[in-house]
Amino acid sequence: MDMNEIEAIFFQECEEGLVGLEACFAELSGGGRDPETINTIFRHVHSIKGGAGAFGLERLQPYPAATVEPVPAPLAKVWLKQHGTGFQVDPMLREALTINALNLLGEWPIRTKFDAIFCRNVMIYFDGPTKARLQTRLADRLKTGGLLCIGHSERLDSSVAGQFESVGRTSFRKIA
Ligand SMILES: C[S@@+](CC[C@H](N)C(=O)[O-])C[C@H]1O[C@@H](n2cnc3c(N)ncnc32)[C@H](O)[C@@H]1O
């Protein structure tokens, strides 16, 4: 899959996200106060902003100051650059990235073992057995000592939990 195809998928996802956002805002303005609606709004916005960053769509991409507040000061000083009223990740870091699309439920043409895998707010879409299978495959692609970072509302499945120790609410180090 080349970058044009990946970009086309991104714009397709943006359109779906915007439709989803519109539905959520309509629900809120109709008086709805379901916390899941608020979560869904955040998920759509995160997806659009995350993809925009990957494609260098700079007007969408800067992080508001409040978002980068938790970044430790020594790291922020080196890697974050002021952009208008927001912040961007230093281009040197962005250029070091390789971006590829991967269907988490399909074949993985990956032989590398990783130091860290961030798989956040994606497993929320999958049923229990699918989550367990995916986590087994993620654990297999991690080096011993590597980190698996998942979303705040996600949990490690009991079938893989023994391979990890917790290093925070959403981060797990592979120990076996
Ligand atoms: C709620 S967003 C989370 C985005 C980002 N990880 C974050 O935390 O902000 C969920 C993402 O999961 C992706 N996704 C859903 N099913 C997937 C699958 N089978 N393989 C890969 N990505 C998938 C969607 O395309 C979407 O970008």
Strand line-up of the largest beta sheet: 4-5-7-6
Largest sheet: 4 strands, mixed
Distance between the termini: 34 Å
Secondary structure tally, helices: 7
Query: Could you give the order of the helices and strands?
Result: HHEHHEEHEHEHEE
Strand element count: 7
Description:
The protein is an alpha+beta fold. It folds into two domains: 3-95, no CATH class; 114-174. It is built from seven helices and seven strands, in the order H-H-E-H-H-E-E-H-E-H-E-H-E-E. It has helices at 3-29, 35-54, 65-68, 73-79, 91-95, 128-140, 158-161, and strands at residues 63-64, 80-83, 86-89, 114-119, 142-150, 164-166, 171-174. The chain has a four-stranded mixed β-sheet. The chain has a three-stranded antiparallel β-sheet with strand order 1-3-2. Strand 2 (80-83) and strand 3 (86-89) form a beta hairpin. The longest helix is centred in the N-terminal third of the chain and has 27 residues, at 3-29. It is globular and about 45 Å long. 12% of the residues are buried. The mean pLDDT is 89.
List keywords for this structure.
binds S-adenosylmethionine; alpha+beta; 176 residues; 2 domains
Give a brief rundown of this model.
Helix content is 45%, strand content 18%. It is built from seven helices and seven strands, in the order ααβααββαβαβαββ.
What is the element layout, followed by pairings?
Elements: H1 3-29, H2 35-54, E1 63-64, H3 65-68, H4 73-79, E2 80-83, E3 86-89, H5 91-95, E4 114-119, H6 128-140, E5 142-150, H7 158-161, E6 164-166, E7 171-174
Parallel strand pairs: 4-5
Antiparallel strand pairs: 1-3, 2-3, 5-7, 6-7
The structure holds S-adenosylmethionine.
Residues 13, 43, 46-47, 50, 103-105, 120-122, 125, 151 line the site of S-adenosylmethionine.
